[in-house]
Amino acid sequence: MTNIITPKSVSALDFTKLDGLVAAVVQDANTKRVLMVGFMNHAAIVATIETGYVVFYSRSRNTLWLKGESSGHRLAVRGITTDCDRDSLLISVEVLGPGVCHEGYESCFVRELRGDEWVVTETQTFQPDDVYAK
Amino acid sequence: MTNIITPKSVSALDFTKLDGLVAAVVQDANTKRVLMVGFMNHAAIVATIETGYVVFYSRSRNTLWLKGESSGHRLAVRGITTDCDRDSLLISVEVLGPGVCHEGYESCFVRELRGDEWVVTETQTFQPDDVYAK
User: pTM of the prediction?
Assistant: First the structure.
């Protein structure tokens, strides 16, 4: 852990409701499609702001996670907004690559509720094996 | 608590990461604007599906919360998708009213990061006192 000076904009967020995290919704700046939801702690937000690329906090691996680190499909930040409760972020991005989902889709949200079934409603935009194989 | 039979589509979601909740992103079906982020438990999702209006779980009040109950600005569900991890929902809605934010804006996401400041970048679409006064 380096000596990061937390910007006051980051300190102004409410991290209390999710044990040190805020929800971060990623939206394509051009198509307005919602691509994914992740979580960020203080350090992930600072890293996102400083690098200009979306960095999440991985709850399962307990570490910062540069989105696209393996696949190359990074998310270039175009804008960040927060909500009235300051406990969620909406991050407008340009996607560097054909998609964000580790299953090979443009968006992680491809399962639509039809009746009582979750149905995948679109086709893959890339083959996961091609980008995660290494 | 009534005897709700949980649909298998709801049981298929992963509630373990947020202590019984999933994040729910609400997006305007027409404009594609992201309006708000809330949280749902099993019962909130079942109520949302059954009534056709967005019902959240209020973490602060520990109860189900029909969005728009006070203001009348309910959210009519047009579609529900889940993501690859099945721990988040994206709900496409038609907004019944001029906005969803308790502060009087169309969206809760009106504070944009500019430098190190969160700046409100738009004007109110309604006066909160008019709809929450009763």
Answer: 0.94
Handedness of CA A81, B98, A112, A122 (dihedral sign): negative
Q: Which amino acid is at A134?
A: K
CATH of the domain spanning B18-132, picked from 3.40.640.10, 3.10.20.810, 3.40.50.2300, 3.40.50.2000: 3.10.20.810
ipTM of the prediction: 0.93
What's the CATH code, domain A16-132? Answer: 3.10.20.810
- Shortest distance between the Cα of A1 and any Cα of chain B, in A, equals 22
> Rounded distance, CA B52 to CA B23, Å?
18
* A53 beta partners: A76
For B30-68, what is each residue's pLDDT tens digit?
Answer: 999 999 999 999 999 999 999 999 999 998 899 999 999
Q: How far are the Cα atoms of A45, A83, B74 from residue A56, in angstroms, in the given order?
A: 8, 18, 32
Q: What is the DSSP string of A51-88?
A: HSB-EEEETTTTEEEETTTTTS--EEEEEEEE-TTS-E
CB contact under 8 A, B109 and A81: yes
